[in-house]
């Protein structure tokens, strides 16, 4: 009861003029006040003694220690239970939509929305829609945004719906004001009608933060130019979705209408939020699981190498190709929701392993794809997304994305074979998920390497136990191992958490070759398999022209194909 006693002492340690007793003691020289202090101290000691005696005789809890820890927490005076985890019922979604697109876009919302009160939130439209399909019980309730014609909008080629959409936060706060539900709301989460959320992962991210404080959580764009010129690296992009803690949403509501008048020359709704956050002084808390996806083309490269954080959202699904081949966009999202239900925490999480008999590298994005590549590719390369997509300004320039990328392949022989998730189920007898991946790319370039063609595989099964707690620990990639199978054209892989000492390395021996120097054990070069400029991984910081070689070497009677780069004309053989 130490803490408790200190609190109880406090009123006693102040005299009527609210001066602490300590300063009173220092400033006093009269013997009379000295006696008073002695009496006070005796009284204190007695008080302390009797209080601890009472609590000793009447412990009102089996564990006095834990109780003394709990008391100050309870005193923070929240009506909510202090340690109740954030659940869906604590979130209010604000979905920015328009009457003209709602019929189509509502199909995306249906893929993640949990009806029957499991989720709380509203779709905000510019005007009522006359379409019975849209008023489905599988969808959030529709609200019509209030009139914004009195607000200025001066961005030249933009759309003034940005004002209506940015005010969803304020309108939500006003709507909840004074309601019974307001006591429960912790977060307002904004998204577009073409944003697909993974709700369990959204919860995993929000649970890391204290909703009673001011938080603005989201992610910038993938496009460096978008962040650099028009918007900001410090802005949460609206399509990727963002979360505002309720106290911050209330603070924003107070200023938002006047604030957005000061920024009438901005383009969007999300940069208006960012501008007002800057006025309040709250920075963006970046969470890499929110995905604006300001890209064109195919998300394959990005979704096959997701950062090691839970995937919270995907966006721009009408702009990019369907995320699974040979199906439409909405059905592709529905397919991704199957593994999302089985092991949401592990969705799109990568694991890398080698088939040492066939010299293949396997990269798994759980619930989405398996890539098989000829030769042993180092983990640091496999962690980098391939350029299956185009940048937002369609410039084919990969200095315009705000992260590392690599070409899909350096040579035809190393073009990966991609297998896409087709089915996933929960094997309740073993508590394991089984997901099936089918080969989809038929293109089969000529390759003269003496390494078996991964196109001989048609179907891959991946076993994996769900791991809902993975994000409560330090992040680490999963490990994968090949399981034996006699079935032709089939591969079976087991994905698990890595053992402490388990690593992804193709050999115990360290091999590197650069500028004619072998580092590591001596190996014999069998032949140069291929020699061309296209093999060069990237521009090296060397003035000499760089040439790439694929060479086959023999190391401890194992044949390996290695890619090497040299600034010399040809490696010494
Ligand atoms: C809605 O659609 C129905 C049938 O197409 C039509 O009869 C009705 O007038 C429409 N209502 C509005 C408000 O446009
Ligand atoms: C909430 O309701 C109270 C009482 O009606 C009112 O005084 C206050 O201004 C309202 N606040 C907001 C943000 O609407
Ligand atoms: C999978 O099966 C196990 C064992 O029966 C069960 O506990 C678990 O809830 C199931 N998971 C899902 C997502 O259905
Ligand atoms: C996968 O590996 C884990 C951990 O080693 C093991 O417990 C499990 O039985 C394996 N699954 C299969 C299908 O072999
Ligand atoms: C890489 O080198 C090529 C050829 O010298 C040059 O055209 C290109 O601009 C370089 N790219 C970068 C990103 O430096």
**Ends apart, CA distance between termini:** 78 Å
Structural class of the secondary elements?
alpha+beta
What CATH calls the topology of the largest domain is Spore Coat Polysaccharide Biosynthesis Protein SpsA, Chain A
Instruction: Spell out which ligands are present.
Output: 2-acetamido-2-deoxy-beta-D-glucopyranose
**Main beta sheet strand tally, sense and closure:** 8 strands, mixed, barrel
Kindly estimate the percentage of residues that lie in beta strands according to DSSP: 15-25%
Q: What is the general shape? A: elongated
Kindly give the count of domains.
3
CATH architecture type of the largest domain: Alpha-Beta Complex
Total count of helical runs of at least 4 residues: 14
Low-pLDDT stretches are 1-32, 47-80, 508-521, 534-545, 567-573
Strand order of the largest sheet: 11-12-13-15-16-17-19-18
Keywords: Membrane, Transmembrane, Transmembrane helix
InterPro entries: DUF604
Transmembrane segments: 21-49
């Amino acid at each position: 009861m130490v803490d408790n006693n200190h609190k109880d002492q406090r009123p006693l340690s102040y005299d009527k003029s609210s001066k602490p007793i300590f300063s009173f003691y220092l400033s006093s020289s009269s013997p009379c006040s000295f006696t008073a202090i002695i009496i006070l101290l005796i009284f204190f000691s007695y008080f302390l003694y009797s209080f601890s005696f009472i609590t000793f005789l009447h412990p009102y809890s089996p564990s006095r220690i834990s109780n003394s820890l709990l008391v100050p927490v309870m005193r923070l005076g929240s009506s909510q239970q202090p340690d109740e985890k954030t659940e869906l019922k604590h979130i209010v979604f604000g979905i920015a939509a328009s009457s003209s697109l709602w019929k189509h876009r509502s199909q995306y919302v249906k893929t993640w929305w949990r009806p029957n009160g499991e989720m709380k939130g509203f779709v905000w439209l510019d005007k009522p829609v006359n379409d019975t399909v849209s008023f489905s019980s599988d969808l959030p309730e529709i609200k019509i945004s209030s009139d914004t014609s009195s607000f200025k909008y001066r961005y030249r080629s933009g759309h003034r719906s940005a004002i209506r959409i940015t005010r969803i936060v304020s309108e939500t706060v006003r709507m909840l004001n004074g309601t019974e539900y307001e006591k429960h709301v912790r977060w307002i989460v904004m998204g577009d009608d073409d944003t697909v959320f993974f709700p369990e992962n959204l919860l995993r991210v929000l649970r890391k933060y204290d909703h009673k404080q001011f938080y603005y959580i989201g992610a910038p764009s993938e496009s460096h130019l978008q962040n650099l010129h028009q918007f900001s690296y410090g802005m949460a992009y609206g399509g990727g979705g963002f979360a505002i803690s309720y106290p911050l949403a209330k603070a924003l509501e107070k200023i938002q209408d006047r604030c957005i008048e000061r920024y009438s020359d901005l383009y969007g709704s999300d940069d208006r939020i960012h501008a007002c956050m800057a006025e309040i002084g709250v920075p963006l808390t970046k969470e890499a699981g929110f995905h604006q996806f300001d890209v064109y083309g195919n998300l394959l490269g990005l979704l096959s190498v997701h950062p090691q954080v839970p995937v919270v959202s995907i966006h721009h699904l009408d702009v990019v190709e369907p995320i699974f081949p040979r199906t439409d966009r909405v059905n592709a999202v529905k397919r991704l929701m199957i593994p999302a239900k089985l092991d949401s925490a592990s969705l799109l999480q990568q694991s890398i392993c080698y088939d040492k008999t066939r010299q293949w590298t396997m990269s798994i994005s759980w619930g989405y794809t398996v890539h098989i590549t000829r030769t042993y590719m180092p983990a640091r390369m496999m962690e980098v997304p391939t350029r299956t997509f185009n940048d937002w300004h369609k410039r084919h320039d990969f200095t315009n994305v705000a992260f590392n990328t690599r070409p899909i392949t350096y040579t035809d022989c190393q073009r990966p074979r991609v297998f896409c998730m087709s089915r996933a189920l929960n094997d309740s007898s073993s508590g394991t998920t089984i997901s099936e991946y089918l080969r989809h790319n038929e293109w089969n370039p000529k390759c003269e390497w003496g390494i078996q063609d991964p196109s001989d595989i048609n179907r891959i099964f991946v076993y994996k136990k769900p791991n809902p707690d993975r994000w409560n620990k330090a992040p680490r990639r999963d490990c994968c191992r090949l399981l034996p199978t006699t079935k032709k054209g089939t591969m079976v892989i087991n994905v698990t958490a890595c053992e402490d000492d388990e690593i992804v390395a193709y050999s115990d021996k360290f091999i590197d070759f650069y500028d004619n120097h072998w580092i590591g054990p001596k190996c014999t070069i069998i032949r140069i398999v291929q020699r061309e400029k296209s093999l060069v991984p990237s521009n090296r910081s060397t003035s000499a022209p760089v040439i790439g070689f694929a060479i086959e070497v023999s190391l401890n009677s194992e044949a390996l194909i290695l890619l090497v780069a040299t600034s010399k004309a040809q490696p010494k053989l």
